[in-house]
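hi! just following up on the protien thing from before. the input was this:
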Amino acid sequence: MTVRIRPSRGVVIAIVVLALLAALAYTGYAGTAVYQQLDSGRTELAAAQAGMKSATQPGDAGQLRLAAAQLRQAEADFSEAGRRARNDPALRLVGGVPGAGRNLDAVTHLAAIGGDMSRAGEAAAAVAIQVTGLKQQYAGRALTPDDLQAVLRQAQGIAKEYSASTQAIGQQLRAAHAERAEVTTTDLVGPLKDAYDAVDAALAQADTAFLRFQDVRQVLSDFLGVRLPA
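and the predicted 3d structure came back as:
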């Protein structure tokens, strides 16, 4: 006759408690991972924006390429943060708790905004690198009427070749603003409110710094300090 030994009630409770602790630990790990990815994306995006601002006027193509690399990394960080916030089962379970769901949704929107801004910056950087190369070709010399016509043709060539990039700048920034409009920060936790304050400032900066590269002719005219022929 086989004797079955049934686990005591205390053992069962201990197993359940350990399972709950493991679930809580994993949820904490998942939340920390999302935060770290968002913070890394924010750092890369801010560095790229500062780098582009300091590099465009002197025409530092190397600094612009570095900014483009930082923007690609920022996009990857924001995309991974958004993917985890949307799909991680532990976080989605927490999202069902009243109040927590609004904050988790805000995190998802924040990641999407960061990704949109990064892609807009990548497109702007691609155009900026080309315009900077053209600026270096003509910098430091008095431009003749023939030079100005040549610059205009080259600017038109860049605008045509990089039309997808110039269009993407506006498209991605519009997407970022649409995501931002989905979020009301009134009921968010303090750190998340602060993050949205920072993203509002970054969006305002991007609207000026990135959108200008949609008009290749005007940017080149500003860089060279001359008025290009119509």
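DSSP finds eight helices and no strands in the chain.
The domain at 9-224 is CATH 1.20.58 (Methane Monooxygenase Hydroxylase; Chain G, domain 1).
cheers
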